[in-house]
Amino acid sequence: MPSVTAQNTTNTGRVLMYMFPRQFGLHNVFTSKVDFRETSQRFKDYTLREEEIALKFGQHNVSKRKLHIPKRLRGRAVELVQQLQKQHHRCSYSKLMEYYCPLPATEIGPSQTRLQEAGLDQ
Predict the structure, then answer these.
(1) Which domain of life, per UniProt (predicted)?
(2) Is residue 88 scored above 90 in pLDDT?
(3) DSSP readout, the chain?
(4) Are 82 and 5 in contact (CB under 8 A)?
(5) Residue, of 99 and 36, whose pLDDT is higher
(6) What is the pTM assigned to this prediction?
(7) For 63, which of 70, 72, 78, 116 is 20 to 30 Å away at the CA?
């Protein structure tokens, strides 16, 4: 089992791949052509790149071997992504939802959904 530090480095590399795909040789919106057999949109959907990453870096997880981070991304870029990951981990998104989008204090019955309770079922 990889150490926590190795796992964090792998996760940081993964986030960097999503943020800077061109630096890792992945399909990107600036230089790559869209394959219209995959999508009917003007641009490819980049939200899930796991299949593309597996094809590029091997079927096994990138964590099995050390990920090479391009020279221009080392240093400050890696530090910023790690800071982003720490803040994401510490953030209580459920508390933010409760604060900014409070639900009325009514009891939900068996036939009532949360959308109906919030008045969003229209």
Answers:
(1) Eukaryota
(2) yes
(3) ---HHHHHHHHHHHHHHHH-GGGGT---TTTPPP-TTT-SSSS---S--HHHHHHHH-SS-GGGS-----GGGTTHHHHHHHHHHHHHHH--HHHHHHHHSPPPSPPPPTT--HHHHHT---
(4) no
(5) 99
(6) 0.66
(7) 72
